[in-house]
Design brief:
binds manganese (II) ion; Purple Acid Phosphatase, chain A, domain 2; five-stranded mixed β-sheet; alpha/beta; six-stranded mixed β-sheet; 11 strands; 250 residues
Length: 250
């Protein structure tokens, strides 16, 4: 059987092609999974579980059907959809995971993160994250009227370049740093990590500091791709894995 991981779909009403690819995935191979993990930025913006647009209802129904087919679906918030909450979980049956979480992936302890906490060179972003993820501020923000939150989201969105492919320099500045990656491996005592956020799908091998008792070990870090010009799916089985793309239909 297969456990599947996806992230950074940035679903929005303005991209029916991506939404279509995702719903095809949910109606098809997702239902033949041991579990489906969504590691953040499923939505381009999520301003609260009370923002029940027709588009959001559609996505929630599709997720519910996967859960009802018997496949556990897990969601970890990204920087775009950290306001996904209990209301979303109740309607969809999706289980919310904290960032970070360690799971047992076919016998290997595996660290799951959205990935933004690893991008420590992006100092401006880390400062912004600290402010917007402050629990007190979040509690207040959730009480803002929906129309206010929509206004704020639209402003943030207009100022964001997420709709454009990033330059190589921008990508490097927002990539995970080796220091943060090694720290995370150590802190959680794992040698396998899966995350998204950087939109740079790849498989990295990180040599770990030498250990007296054993030979030098290597830790595996798999970075999921975004769903912008294609889909990106990580498939894990008991003995192997495959990070693959799914083409958009013409
Ligand atoms: Mn992100």
């Amino acid at each position: 059987m297969i456990t599947r991981f996806i992230s950074d779909l940035h679903l929005s009403q303005s991209r029916p092609d991506i939404t279509g690819l995702f719903t095809d995935f949910l109606r098809g191979e997702a239902r033949e999974s041991d579990a489906l993990y969504i590691l953040g930025d499923l939505f381009d913006y999520w301003i609260g579980d009370d923002d029940l647009t027709q588009f959001h209802r559609h996505i929630m129904t599709e997720l519910r059907l996967v859960v009802e087919s018997g496949v556990p679906v897990y969601f970890m918030a990204g920087n775009r959809d950290f306001l996904v909450g209990d209301g979303f979980a109740q309607v969809t049956g999706v289980q919310i995971l904290n960032d970070p979480t360690v799971i047992d992936l076919y016998g290997t302890p595996t660290l799951l993160l959205h990935g933004d906490t690893l991008c420590t060179d992006d100092i401006g972003y880390q400062r912004f994250r600290k402010i917007i993820r402050n629990p007190l501020l979040l509690a207040i923000a959730k009480r803002f009227p929906l129309s206010w939150r929509r206004g704020i989201a639209n402003k943030l969105r207009a100022g964001s370049k997420s709709k454009q492919p990033l330059t190589e320099q921008q990508l490097k500045a927002m990539d995970a740093t080796d220091t943060a990656v090694l720290k995370a491996f150590k802190r959680h005592n794992v040698t396998q990590m899966i995350h998204g956020h950087t939109h740079q799908p790849d498989v990295h091998e990180h040599p770990l500091p030498a250990d007296d008792s054993e030979d030098n070990k290597v830790a595996l870090r798999i970075v999921l791709g975004d769903w912008y010009e294609q889909g990106s799916i990580l498939e894990f089985t008991v003995d192997t894995f495959l990070l693959r793309e799914e083409s958009l239909k013409d």
